[in-house]
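Researcher: Good morning. I'm working through a list of sequences from a screen, and I'd like to move beyond sequence-only analysis. For each chain I'm collecting a predicted structure so we can compare shapes side by side. This is the next one on the list. No need for commentary yet; just the structure.
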Amino acid sequence: MNRPDLIRIPLLALLGVAAFPAVAQTPPPAVAPTLSVPTIQPVPVPPPPVPIPALSPAQEAWANDWLKNGAAQGLMARQKASGPLSGDALVSALLDRAKALSTGRVDTADFLQIWALRPGAFDPRPGLAKAVSEDRLSQWSTGLTPPWSGYDTLRKGLAKYEAIRDKGGWPTLTASSAPDVVRARIALEDPAVTQNEKLVDVIQRAQRRYGLEPTGTLGTRTLAELNVGVDDRIAAIMANMERWRWMPRSLPVNRVQVNIAAAVLTVFEGDQPVTSMRAVTGSPTNQTPMLTSSIHSIVVNPPWNVPMSIANRELFPKGRAALARQGYKIVKTPEGGERIVQPAGPGSALGRLKFDFNNPFAVYLHDTPSRGKFSSYDRLASHGCIRLEKPVALAELMVAADPNLNGQIQTLIDEGKTQRVSLPSQVAVYLLYWTAFAGNNGTVSFRADPYGWDKLLAQKIEASSRRVDPTAAPSPAIASKD
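Model: Good morning. Structure tokens for this chain:
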């Protein structure tokens, strides 16, 4: 991440005239000047909190019953039976639950810095006060959760995995497990499995759900995914439901979304997916951040100004002669140091196109001359930026509204010049980390958790719930890992 330069003010400027020799000072005037008294601006006083009317006995009964669905919404792995709340304790629990469902259980102060996708501010008091006064608590509650089908389908999937957990989970498979055992194990997650279906088809469908190459055989990676514990699957679902709560309540109808964990980019137009492509995202040691921004321009034939972290770790140790043979240039910096630049061209690490958007991590989308990774099922290998399988097609979509640029991207590339192309309108971009997503029938697809963010976030959800939610019960499988 780029660190802003410090602003340095000369000491003499801070000391003012007292820093100059006495002989250089202007003699004081005969009459002392009148001192102007600065106007003191009053500190704005925040308005008092919206009062919550007293709940009727029927409303209290409804509220206590509603508070029992925290585990069903992924706010805790298990819920404890607790006595009914009333008065201020009940109101406090309702406000806490409303905020957790609307913008997330975990406070942003407890986010990792690289989780730069942050929920908007939300005050639940006015809505709750109105719902109590109008006796519409049920309608109020339904509007708290994210309006996206991605959240609702995960909620259905969570119920399914909690039921599997409560029945004892699933057996551990080995390469020598009997076909009927394998079939029964996969059927716990996949309702489409039938007794007469070929086992190879059953395994292939499972492999696709896990983002693995569909070989139809029980290889090492397939067995590893099938043997992930049900508690860990629940933790993944909880973490992804929480990330949905961080999302805005409306999205631009034209946007680019990158699933970092799956290494896939999808383009939306009119709120419908129109194309997708494989991508290469950050390796576990060079994580791609979660964030939202807007792509404002495309650099055609970009040179690569190598970040100093990469230069010092990977390039300078090769020696100047080796770098020169590989086409790199070492240039002086204004501060007297050196940096490495890879000139534009077919061998540039950025390929022929770079898509720029403002962010504090200096990441972007770009082309690449190394195409081999796109045919792989393991595509988390970059330094944090996103390499694109079809960058020219993406650029053409973004400039199509400009008659001077429409259909001209390849022509600009062929000119060989480095030039920046401003987009006719900026395109929203979302870098997201989805490791669990479900279909309408509750069948959940999973991806590996390469950055370890799922378990960490699930632990934070549990810890936050235990601090403030009187219905939260410690989970020996997840919460005890704090």
